[in-house]
């Protein structure tokens, strides 16, 4: 007869710590949301692209004159959904009960964003395919790091 000694308790404890880290929305979801909002800001407010990756459109000549008064671009510019910067500055990472989301703190800016989408007949403020892929890759990377795989 022989005796087998195992150290299962420390192993179980280590696994539990790793799993607890994955439940932590600060570890997993918050950094993803902040990275994705940066990508969205560039796409919407610098490149002027909708969620499908195509340009949102161009401004009318009348509206371009108004934009020039605010020093918001050259005489011909793609739509970048920003005039006074209130809308783009309000677009934020927001903590929720389930984790983190991206949206507007001010309901008026949410209405403005939907109005722009309606007027331009484009989806602008949803994640693009590239942003979704980035988020999934980032989550996979964080899970791998948490589990030390």
Written description of the protein model:
The protein is mainly α and 149 residues long. Helices cover 58% and strands 7% of the residues. It has a two-stranded antiparallel sheet with strand order 1-2. A hairpin with a 4-residue loop joins strand 1 (91-95) and strand 2. The longest helix has 23 residues, at 25-47.
Shape: elongated
Strand order of the largest sheet: 1-2
In total, how many domains does the architecture comprise? 1
Through-space gap between termini = 37 Å
Structural class: mainly alpha
Strand content: 5-15%
Notable traits:
149 residues; mainly alpha; two-stranded antiparallel sheet; 7% strand; elongated
SSE layout and pairing:
Layout (H helix, E strand, L loop, with lengths): L7 H16 L1 H23 L13 H9 L16 H5 E5 L4 E5 L2 H14 L8 H19 L2
Antiparallel strand pairs: 1-2
Helix pairs in contact: 1-6, 2-6
Structure at a glance:
With 149 residues, the chain is mostly helical. 58% of the residues lie in helices and 7% in strands.
